[in-house]
Amino acid sequence: MENSILVLLPPVIAIVMAIITKQVIFSLGSGIIIGGLMLNGFNPLSTLEYLSTTLMESVADPKWNTPIIVFCLLLGGIIGMVSRSKATISFSHWAAKRVKTRRGAMLTTWILGMLMFIDDYFNSLSVGAVMRPITDKMNVSREKLAYILDSTAAPVCIIAPVSTWIAFVMSIMAEEFTRYGIDKNPFSAFISIIPFNFYAILALVMVVFIAIVGKDFGPMKRAEEMQSRATSVKQEEISSNSTVWDLVIPIGSLVFMTLLAMIWTGGYFTADISLWVAFTESDPAFSLIYGGLIAVVITFAMYAIKRTLPFGEIFESFVDGMKTMMGVIVVLALAWTIGAVIGDLNVRTYIADIVADGSIPMFLIPVTMFLISALVAFSTGSSWGTFSIMVPIAIATAVAGPTSFIYAALGAVLGGAVLGDHCSPISDSTILSSAGADCSHIDHVNTQLPYALVPGGFALIGSIMVGVGINHYIVLTLCIAAMLGFLHVILNKN
To answer: Is the whole-model pTM more than 0.85?
Structure first.
């Protein structure tokens, strides 16, 4: 079956099933089972043994996968404690005294979204809780708030050096790099991918531009006009027994201690090397654990000493937070497993041979990855599920080219997945953004769709340009300039 088109069957089945069923776990499981059957001559007993072994080996990998699972649990616990403490309410009270204009309210929401880069769920819900009373006071529509929340959640998490998203993506990359003999540190590789992620960067730039010019188009314009005619806005109670520091210290300690652990594991304190070299040579998986553990201890101790929460409730909120991560861990396990199955089927060899033969033009690989990833994410509502399917395929497809081409393909996958996620009405991040803004979900989807398609269209053009060999920094600059010019025209036309 090696070097046969049939080796593509498992990933194709996973993608098609994801589009049809909109169930990521079921779709990944289907691809895994089909791949296992193909590798074992369709013998059910051999397949069961193979898949059990592969799953256990993937989850129990002490170098990367197991630490990532531990970090997800720790992060869930921190989010659980912070959410239960209602520290976001205290921050809202503090910020309400300092934000005086609509523009200021929107830009403050954008800035907070940029700072809450650890996790998109935490981002949408916490920033929404903080800013909703303020944007209400400034007569910013709930639809506009939901758009800003959504556009500063996934796009920020996918380009931030420390986040659950990056931990997930790097875990898949690490598996594939090892499997295909790519001698790259996953963290340093991810840093190199960031400027290729055109959609995420363009989406963030567009939020700032829309906030500054104070104009809108499409359904969002109608929502803003209706809000401006409103005679009264419901204000929420923004008092709390907690303080701003109950939010700042847990998140700040997590970020700071993780970064400190990274330069420590990279040898900065034991060798005469630069900070950048230490980061690129770090052990990001264990650094996340070290940072997470210390942040948990600091948060637990602070809440207990200050009596922010009763001792029993601190522990209960930590456990409840960990429980919310179980779905993520299941997707992770399946992502690692289907990556192993695809590797055992030698999909990389088959695709690389086709590309080398010129059957698939190399210049079309980035834009193809972008479009397919957007379609899968839109259909499934899951960026992470799309990453688990498309990252191994992107690496296998682009490995025949130079390293920069692998980065271009991966950047296209990450950007396309976030675009599809933004446009999808069944996306959990879209739903949480609606919840964070206390906005009708359908209204959020309808108003955000045109706002997502604008950066999506220019990111598509950028993927084509980088595919033909134009420097990615030049492409990014041109795409930003062209998008802002387009927005200037369309906003002044309406």
So the answer is: no
